[in-house]
Amino acid sequence: MIRLLFRLLPLLASAWALRAAEPLAHWAYQPVVRPTLPTVKQSAWPRTDLDRFILAKLEAKGLQPSPEADPRTLIRRLYFDLLGLPPAPEEVETFVREFSLSHSPTVPPAIGESEKARKRESEHGAVARLVDRLLASPHYGERWARHWLDIAHYADTHGFERDQLRPNAWHYRDYVIASLNADKPYDQFLREQIAGDVLAEGSKVQGPKSKVAEAAPTKETGSQLSTFNSQNLAATGFLAAGPWDFVGQVETKSDVLKRAARADDLDDMVTQVLTASMGVTINCARCHDHKLDPISQREYYGLWAVFAGVKRGDRELDPAATARRETERKQLQTRLRAVSAELGRLSGEGLDLADMVGGGNGRGTGTKGAGLDLRTGSVVKDKLGYHRDSQLNRLQKPEWSDANTPKFVQWIFVPDGKAPVPIASQVTVSNLPPTSGHAWDAIRNGALNAQVSTTLDGVDFAAAGHSLLGLHANAGITFNLTEIRKASGFAKLRFTALVGFGAGPPAAATRADFSMFAGKELLFQKLKLRKDESARVDVALPDTAETLTLVATDGGDGIGNDLLFLGDAKLSLTVEAQSLAAADRARIETLRAEEKQLTAALAAKVDGDKVYAITSSEPPVVKVLRRGNPEDAQEEVAPGVLACVKHAPADFARAKTEGERRLALAEWITHPANPLTRRVLVNRLWHHHFGVGLVDTPSDFGKGGGVPSHPELLDWLAEEFLTRGWSVKAMHRLICTSAAYRQVSGYESVSVRGTKRAASAAPSLPHSHTLTPSHRLDASNRLLWRQHPRRLDAESTRDAVLAVSGKLNLAAGGPGFRDFKYTEAYAPIYDYITADTPELWRRSIYRFVVRTTPHTFMTTLDCPNPANLTPARTATTTALQALALSNNEFILQQARHFAARLERAAGADAASQITRAFHLAFARPPTREELAGATQLVRSDSLFALCRMLLNANEFVYVD
Amino acid sequence: MNSPYASNLRQRSATRRDFLWQLGGGLGGVALTTLLAEQSARAASPQTPDARPHPQNPLAPKSAPSPARARAVIQIFCPGGLSHVDSWDWKPELAKRTGKPFDPTGTVQFFASKPGNCQGSYWSFRQHGQCGRWVSDLFPQFAKCVDDITFIHSMQSKSALHGPAMFMANSGFILPGFPSMGAWVTYGLGSENENLPAFVVLPDPRGLPPGGVINWGAGFLPAVHQGTPLNTDPELPPIADLFPPKNFAGITPQGEQAGRNFLQTLNRQHAAARAGNTELDARIAAYELAARMQLSAPEVTDLRGESDATKQLYTLADEDIGPFGRQCLLARRLVERGVRFVQIYCGAENTGAKKIRPNWDSHEDLVRDHGYWGRVLDTGAAALLTDLKARGLLDSTLVICTSEFGRQPGAQGKGRDHNAGAFTAWLAGGGIRGGTAYGTTDELGSKAEEHPAYSYDLHATALHLLGVDHERLSFYHNGVQRRLTDVHGHVLREILA
């Protein structure tokens, strides 16, 4: 094998040389070379070396840079840029003071050069300190994670037809936030996202001395080792972040359709990794060689081979901790069962059948709301919908996840009502009315999906002290009386319950039946039960009966609205409650206390954390697919990378496992000599700081993408990035303190310098007459003779509204907030609600993002579709946005909170209220005219009306 | 040109264009907006009908690059998979083989089942109109309009799964995230009534179709091009957030006006100090536009002005048909008022509704479910075609009816499984040659046989009728100059009038 490789090497080398000689010398594939700093005429302007690159270009074109923005503009710009939040008024004032120290009365008016220099120094120091403070804020990671999650097309549901929840996806989102806040070196950040699971394995051997451990967040008190391992695992959520088609991957019976869905899955992963990290539009080579870039179709499938063993799915975040927790939970459960059983025996209370459906012992140990799926017997927590395809009369055994669950529920089934249902040998249940054979939701310890009423005969069975057993037609359930007698010590049993409808007005005309069997004996039956009726059952059970079977059927008119349920369905001792001895009474008290304690302890032991990430398996053989058709496989390909990027060969030879293939790719991508990875990242940072990248196609550095406006600057930044240890925060610091970044964004400032008052005094003049030479020569501002004004994105708008209203909930991390009502169905339904509670007032980065049903308000404000990799957001201006910001209930409520906040802070004086409002919303006091206009509005209408309009103002949604 | 888009986007397409021209052009990747920009830059020429009342409005009407036959599109979408062999694709051979094995080899695997025996149409077919096209008895009203219709019998999809196939039918790609046809059309042509959204969607009142809201999404196009759902419930405001919620305390009409005046004054002062930033002017204009929309949108959904005869035509009073009839009537009113693209959904998906399948996806009881939905579609579509024709709107309005795929000729119990290999779409008006058909399926209706067609061809033809070349309507996204028709699509000239 090795010899073969040696023989091939010269061939390979010559192939590479040949390629190098080809006229494919695209700039982006050339090595990054540190350029010499250009000389500039206005040597006083640059604040950092990067400014020299900007100024040199401007001077060459005869353009002037713009003056520095005033401190209010700067602090607002920096806050939104780095934190995505507005500055508090006090912070603004402090900064303005610090910034303007040189103007304070103690310092004589600036005239000499040294004074000028001192003033600049003071300004610079103020900005640098502010930037440092912002970069140290935990909200920095929340802001910049949004940019990365856009590239990762992260969301909290699968997408496609059956858009199911991904309740554990958020660990990846938190990983990104934590990594950014910790300023994790970017190369490590990428490696973890591509092959973190392998790094986690490796680090177990290496121990916490490795580089990985140093940057690991240490929020948990548990072992350092396990913390960073699980973080690395969460990192691979990157590969799984995109959409995934459950129907194509799992549900369909057709292999052709499954292969097609899997092909899209792999394409998604490969595209995500290469586009995010290297700005290569690799997906263009799926059906043919890339039309513009030197990427062959074969190379594309070589990358497929790297990911061929990767699938998306939930994975234990920390298997050891989960196992520990499971053991503790079992011990608690065992004790609780014993306590409850003894309590029941002593007190003679009835055993609750609904509790048994929830996996309990009849005394409240079961899970409230849990149900048993009629089709499979599995335990379900989420609500289910309509079942047409159930197997009829087929007994399903409850699939308890905990082996110690009492075996009180023996079977569940969907009856057809014609054939007898065999419950046990020699025992069948018959004489049931015929049914449609369809079913709804599950049998539940609690209300059913879509249940409207929980009240019968004036008693609300959902209230404390009562129980509710949901039994929608058509469904049957058999309880094992033998087991129940054994566990409870009850010999003679009596069954009592109230049966009725939990449906709403549409059920007026529907009918349903209820039947009850002890063994095979039909002991109670109510046919054609009406919605406005209920039936009381109170039957003594024969001692010989080994089973109790309850059946709800549809009354022959379909199952629509047949929401039957049983209130307080109990098995109790038939003997009268005996008078208790004092000792027993004391014992009962002790047991009650212990029961309470155990229940609380158990509730604290929540499920082991899982992360929606990747699972690894033996990679299948990958073949080139002609025209991308999964049914037209051609020659086999081995894992590989792109030949057009020649910094180093990827070392797949040593990759023994699936994960090591990804690690080899990750190392190739993050190799210091990779010409693309660093250039792409510094350009992304530039894009977000200036609104446009030096390359204006941040995810496409190919021939079809943009040409860099400042190629030397791009390389200089990429080199600085390496010098500064791949530190993203160091790059922010560099850019945000530069003179280029700190310029004003306005157009006319250059020509009307010093006469600004004149411009604002004549607002009605047509705009065009003040255009500067810079504007004429470079209207689109590619050379950055000014900063770009920018509109807040959807998330920042929402966060800013909450910050200004005073209601922003800064709780960080954890599961996303769900501002919708969720209904389980074949394709789940997401109905949005107005965010009107603190839990829903968290930052937008913590919003639970649904793919098929995006949030209308956010989408209207240009929040992108998470099906797409979004390197750059678009900003549209539409009438629907105006309507959303003026009339959406969320905005109106927040405007009201804003007004209340002003009243609290500024008292009843309108002028103080308005001044405070302008400070909060715009980081400045109102002008005299504005104060007059606002006062008039507050007087004629209300403070609320003013607050609502301030949230709609251009100044609120634009950053200068 | 005052492009509606952020300056960076504008710059990007210019760079891209230069690049393509250097390569010799003809790669078909030039953004239409750029072309239009050149047209309007070329002049002040009096022939340019491109009047721009609000230069900042991305939905300002744009003249079609080539002569247009249609001014607007109404698309009826029947999600779930409408069975072509029970509706419009007459298969006498299938009827003959009813009860005989469909797949004697036993190797075929459909989406959810192994094929059962051949099953002929559950409804009889008859010839209709001057043209004598065959239509099943499921559509007695619609059959009377057949002389205005072109059927495309050879439609195919690239997926037999609802989600991907819905995306393909709407956006040309089986993956989510691509702009829907309505978004592309308004991106290319804007709208003739800026007081209403340019692309309006009338979802089924029972819920969203498979794949959800993103079926009418703008994908990577600017969000202004996404479909705006119009609430068909007369009790609710027609557009989300058109007005503050009812009974929100502290909002009065006078206060609204005073607040708006204050806002615009504030915004004008703000803009004056930032002369040259036209985005600020655009946002000021957007608030004025929003105020006009508050007047024009409720007017559209107010049906009181419609005659009793019209209401009867659309069968508005019927419990089952009424909601769809209302959607169709609203579509006519929208098009009448200059809305460019209207999409109507005849069926839902993610809904908790029971008894009847919530859309055409008839796996277990085709007679029950197609029977129900057929009656709905038959009445509404026939009313729409009749009404448009009577008002002289059919010539300038392209009506399209499609599904994401068809159903299998081999039975699945009493139903039929998914069939991506063949389905029928039909078109009417807007430059379509009536009374004809394009393409065929094999003798059983299992697969497209003659002139197989995909959504690409349907989309290319529709764009052509709107005066747009589908190869030139494009938008740069992550390395590719994207099109509605991907790298495919042929205008089906045979079906043009």
Greatest contact pair? A-B, 131 and 107 residues
Judged by helices, strands and strand pairing, the structural class of chain B is: alpha/beta
Mean pLDDT of chain B: 86
Shape of chain A: globular
Number of strands of chain A: 27
Which structural class do you get from the secondary structure elements of chain A? alpha+beta
The CATH topology assignment of one domain in chain A is Jelly Rolls
Report on this structure.
The complex is a heterodimer of chains A (960) and B (497). With 960 residues, chain A is an alpha+beta fold. Chain A has 32 helices and 27 strands. In chain A, strands 2, 3, 4, 10, 13, 15, 18 and 20 form an 8-stranded antiparallel beta sheet that branches. In chain A, β16 (511-518) and β17 (521-530) form a beta hairpin. In chain A, α3 (71-82) packs across α4. Chain B has 497 residues and is an alpha/beta fold. Chain B folds into 2 domains: 1-50, no CATH class; 72-242 and 312-495, Alkaline Phosphatase, subunit A. In chain B, the strands form 4 sheets. Chain B has an 8-stranded mixed beta sheet with strand order 6-5-7-1-8-11-4-12, sandwiched between helices. In chain B, α6 packs antiparallel against α7 and α9 runs parallel beside α10. Chain B is globular, with a radius of gyration of 24 Å. Chain B starts with 6 loop residues before the first helix and ends in a 14-residue tail after the last strand. The chains are: A alpha+beta (960), B alpha/beta (497).
